[in-house]
Amino acid sequence: MLMAALAVASLALMDAYMKSAALAVGALSAAWLRSLIATGIALPLWLARGGRWPQRAVLTLHLQRSVVATFMALTFFYAITKLPLAEAIAISFVAPLIALYLARLMLGEIIRREAIAASLLGFAGTLVIIGGKVGQAEFDRDTALGLAAILTSAMLYAYSFILIRRQSQVAGPAEIATFHSGVSVLLLGIAAPFLFEMPDSDTLRDLAAAAVLTVIGAMAFAWAYARAEAQVLVPLEYSGFLWASVFGWLFFAERLTLPTL
């Protein structure tokens, strides 16, 4: 539980650094550079622990989650350039609800009432925030794009919960973190020659911090999901709202709206 909470906090802080970087150079450039730096951190850790190439079934699982995580991250980073950080995190709380039902269907977990209640509460909050956004006078194209991107990211995030639970049963945290970032480098690298923007030194520092936090979060999640069912850990995602609120205020002076509260 503590490791999962650490992962949520680390990734919420990572999101703040990535919002700053994505605003400076675009979501794709920021995502690609973050993954590149994170691979440089995770790969030596994996090699130091033996670094054996995974068997085909495990490699397939790594590739599946890495592809999902790549597009999940890209759509999320785009969304937070259009929406306040806390609002984006709060809207993404639809993901735990979806993840619970996927855990039942794909992992065979028996979902407890408490987990369902917590996820339904989060989903209700998502509807309130979206309703508040749509009803505001400043609802515009950017806001609509941000909402579409964050909901897409949330759907992918829900599936990612299931994949990391499976991954954590057959691979260690360092291996998972290495493939998570390494495959992302290759995928995003396809578009990088056409859309890449070179960051300045301040943005590079943000990306380096984000990369470190990405590795910490990925390894902490892998450790936690190896030891607990998805339904136990998924509701901890709601603690991310507190961190996002704090970091959004500290980094970007973002104020919470009434629907978000």
Structure description:
- There is one protein chain.
- With 261 residues, the protein is mainly alpha-helical.
- Helix content is 78%, strand content 0%.
- It has one domain (2-252).
- The chain has twelve helices and no strands.
- The radius of gyration is 18 Å and the shape is globular.
- The two termini are 25 Å apart.
C-alpha Rg (nearest Å): 18 Å
The number of distinct structural domains comes to 1
| Shape label | globular
Main beta sheet: none
Q: How many extended strands?
A: 0
Distance between the termini: 25 Å
The low-confidence runs, each spanning 5 or more residues with pLDDT under 50, are none
* Helix content bin: over 70%
- Sketch the topology as an H/E string, one letter per element: HHHHHHHHHHHH
The portion of residues forming beta strands comes to under 5%
Mean pLDDT: 87
Q: Helical element count?
A: 12
In terms of structural class, how would the helical and strand content be classed? mainly alpha
Structure summarized in a few sentences:
The protein has helices at 2-25, 27-48, 56-79, 85-91, 94-107, 113-134, 141-168, 173-189, 192-195, 201-225, 230-233, 240-252. The chain is mainly α.
